[in-house]
Amino acid sequence: MIMDDVVYDAYREAGALARRVLRRGAGLVKEGAGLLEMVEATEAMVTEEGALLAFPLNVSFNEAAAHDTAMPGDERTFARGDLVKVDLGVQIDGYIADTAMTVDLGDHAPLVEASRAALEAAIAAVRPGVTAGELGAAIQAAIEERGYKPVANLTGHGLDRYNLHGKPTIPNVAMSGGAVIEEGMVFAIEPFATTGSGKVVEAARVEIYRQVAARPARLPSAKRVLETARPRRGLPFARRWVPGDKVEIGLATLVRTGILHPFPVLHDVPGSFVSQAEHTLIVTADGCEVTTR
Ligand code: CO
Questions:
Q1: What is the CA(219)–ligand 1 centre distance, in A?
Q2: Per the confidence metrics, is the pTM higher than 0.90?
Q3: What is the domain extent for residue 169?
């Protein structure tokens, strides 16, 4: 598929905005600063520019790899030694840019460099005809040669309109085959490097959800949750975004009845450290254009 100019421009505009906001947001990650304040300030930068978030700003600490964000009234602060992943999604008219970086408040420079180098190696390998498995091999090699493990059960993903999890899936480890990359595809590559097991598991805590069924709810608190969820058009939202009280009951009811899908915080083993780097790109005739650089 060759994209028309309007679509292409929306992806590029979202990418340019995401790049600027990610840099400014990551600059707010400082020892002693509050997580909630940093998250709200960064999310506001997107809406103040007239764009929308593709998902709540993910800020994940240390062994957490993804899907954490500020809780309502969150009192966590950034501390010396923390390794902080900041993952931002911006959408313009449903066309998404997804980009992430890792802020090191400790002595994790080689680990940060591992995911960054893996991302660059994969981007350099993108062209029509290459397979997703080959991109995964480039990621794995770059991380392992620096003495770390790639996180095998997290992947890059296609970005369709209002859809964060389209095709192709880009693994962070070598595999045979996988999707064949084609001109015009838009996807995010997001290597994670870890000092832990190389596999993430789900925590009990859930901050991020998305609506997956259009059924109505009767419970007032569930109705209120759906008022936040519905305008997202299937894109994720944060528990923190739902106003009022009894939000927990509303969320639990909607998950139980299959109306919401939860995204629990994902983490490697306690005491480990995970780094992440991510860009969104459009595949061209002979390579790719990175929208978020
Ligand atoms: Co992503």
A1: 33
A2: yes
A3: 5-200+268-290
